[in-house]
Amino acid sequence: MKRLICISLAALTGSVFAAEATPNLPSSAVVQRVLFANPGIQAASSQVQVEEANKVKLEAGSYEWSVRLGSQQRKSYPGASPDQRFNEWNAALERPLRLPGKASLDAELGAAGVALAETARGDVRHETSRSLLSMWFAWLRETVSARQWTEHVELLSQQTRAIQRRQQLGDAARLEAVQAEGALAQAQAQLVQVQVREQTAAEALRRRFPGLPMEMQTRIAEPVTVTGTQNEWVDVILEHSHELLLARGITQRAQLSASRSGRDRMPDPTVGIHVSSERGGEDRIVGAYISIPLPGTARRASSDAALAQADVAAREEIAVAQKVSSEAAILYQSAVAAFSTWQAGRESAERLTQAANMSARAYQLGEGSLNDLLTARRLANEASLSARLLQLDALALRYRLLLDAHRLWDFDEEPTQISQRN
To answer: How far apart are CA 52 and CA 308, in angstroms?
Structure first.
């Protein structure tokens, strides 16, 4: 029955979330190649190798054989006999013994270190993906802004040439030509500023992620609404959050360390055998011995500190879970609101553009002033630019939601059963 319930829930979840295309983004193959060539991700991969070697070290332990050799000269002074001298030597072979239970904990600590390094590598990869997505859309915003201002400049250029021609024919005042030229110069200055920002954003993206193709986006896709409830998205993001998995792994390792430190309150004994030759070989000695350190305050304090550190890690894990949950809820709300905001912005831009066209027609018929037309053009341009940027914001937030839910650029594990349906 439990299995049937789980299958039913998985099917229901799969119907709420389904795979989708990703317009205005680089291909997954290109992104994967760029990410795996990133030095930060490569460094995290090397750290996994470090932890694998440390795992072998912990499993082996520092329990090595030791050899002790000694030599001495004995002088004897018997009362009725001449003094005697004897060359003597001794040798010992000893090794600490790991008490029962410690070896398994050391192996678990080593495995926990490897798992933690792998999770950290996934976290670095995810954070790098976030940076790539953020910088990619920063470049797209400047590209769209430059395109919008270019269109506006072209429109004002046509208008200025028409007014200049009318002035030459005596059908327009000099003031109108000056106003048109001033509006054109102002728009051209804005265009230059936007083009500089576009070049800066492109260069930053190119430097941070070498090999990423900077293909001009001829068309920006229309966003689609986010489906699924907030709780569903938050649960999925929590399930796959590398930050939370990392905090959980730190807690588990701290608990293992506390258990291991508790075992160390009972010191490991050292056992050995020794042989010696005394009185020039007249006496031969063979024996065995055991050495046990007497535990003191330092071992007890070390164990208490490890327990306290495990408690710290557990509380920090709770804090990270709250943080990730809060950020996921805010991201979901932002993505949902961005779609509605874009729709309102698009409608506003359409109305203001229509008003600007009507003002242009009225001016041509001599029923309106140039100042009214320039104001209408400026408002329409601002509204169109705002609508395009809101469109990009809606796309970016939705892709960020998919990225955090591991439905976008998920290169470190198999795709989940959760994805978004449109």
So the answer is: 27
Domain spans of the chain, in order of start: 30-74+85-404
**CA distances in angstroms from 309 to 70, 160, 251, 306, 312, listed in the order given:** 45, 73, 9, 5, 5
CA distance 104 to 106: 5
pTM of the model: 0.84
| Strand (E) or helix (H) holding 405 | none
Q: CATH class for domain 30-74+85-404?
A: mainly alpha
CA distance 371 to 362: 12
- Rounded to an integer, what distance in angstroms lies between the CA atom of residue 127 and that of residue 356? 44
Which tokens belong to 378? 């400026």
- What is the per-residue pLDDT across 83-127, written as a single tens digit (0 to 9) for each? 778 888 999 999 999 999 999 999 999 999 999 999 999 999 999
E strand spans, 294-361: none
Contact present, 392 and 137 (Cβ < 8 Å):
yes
Provide the Cα torsion 270, 274, 279, 281; round to 10°.
-170
C-alpha distance from residue 246 to each of 117, 120, 308 (Å):
9, 6, 19
